[in-house]
Amino acid sequence: MGFLALACMFSQRVNLSVAIVAMVKKRIQDQKEASQICFSSEYYKGNASFSEGNFDWDEKIQGHILGSFFYGYAITNVIGGPASHYFGARLVAGFGIGLSSLL
Question: Can you spell out the DSSP letters for 19-85?
Answer without folding.
Answer: HHHHHBPP---SHHHHHH----HHHHTT-TT----SB---HHHHHHHHHHHHHHHHHHHHHHHHHHH
